[in-house]
Design goal:
This protein has nine helices and no strands. With about 200 residues, the chain is an all-alpha fold. The protein has one domain. Helix 3 packs parallel to helix 8, helix 4 packs across helix 7 and helix 5 packs across helix 7.
Length: about 200
């Protein structure tokens, strides 16, 4: 099923309505959809590099709006909507592990790791933020920074290095992002230890 969703999303990048589909996929990825918007964003930015930053802006805006929807689902309708969605995608256990002890700082860190490495998936973080009643303004600003950084960095890399970087991104970005996320987590833990 996941492979079919991936293939379907890739096929959307060739359509004239690709920018609209990018907005839709970025929105639903942040609240309920499993396939990341990158699957659509990368081929679109490669096909029309002069529009890469425009596509990054679209992906960022709609990813943040989808994040707000996910936050709302967690805040207002966890039992009715979020729990069945998380259970369907097999993410309920991950969610329950993350829920214990969530703070604003933790949400910001999770948005960074999710934004760059998709760990945990963004929908888990957005719904979790609502359930934990994280301040919506703080959540929105954090989401704009982290999601924007991801899409604009990808746009810049694709504009600068073209097709060569696409293969590198598809094969190694997850590993690089995981290393970067690990460095941020270690820095955060060190900061907490030094300030207490």
């Amino acid at each position: 099923m996941l492979r079919r969703l991936y293939d379907w999303t890739m096929a959307l990048s060739a359509r004239k309505s690709a920018a609209v589909w990018l907005a839709v996929i970025a929105f639903v990825e942040s609240s309920v959809f499993l396939v990341p918007a990158d699957v659509l964003f990368l081929p679109m930015a490669l096909a029309k590099p002069e529009r890469a930053f425009r596509y990054a802006l679209i992906a960022t805006i709609f990813s943040v709006l989808g994040g707000i929807a996910g936050w709302g689902i967690g805040y207002f309708a966890f039992d009715a909507i979020a729990e069945p969605i998380l259970q369907f995608w097999g993410k309920l256990d991950t969610f329950n592990e993350l829920k214990a002890g969530i703070t604003d700082e933790t949400v910001a860190l999770l948005l960074v790791t999710s934004g760059f490495a998709h760990l945990p998936p963004i929908k888990v973080v957005t719904i979790l933020s609502g359930v934990a009643k994280i301040n919506l303004g703080f959540f929105v600003v954090s989401a704009i920074i982290t999601r924007g950084a991801r899409f604009f960095l990808l746009a810049w890399l694709l504009r600068r290095y073209g097709e060569d970087i696409r293969h590198f991104i598809e094969k190694r970005l997850g590993q690089i992002a995981m290393i970067g996320a690990a460095v941020l987590i270690v820095a955060y833990i060190a900061y907490k230890l030094l300030t207490h």
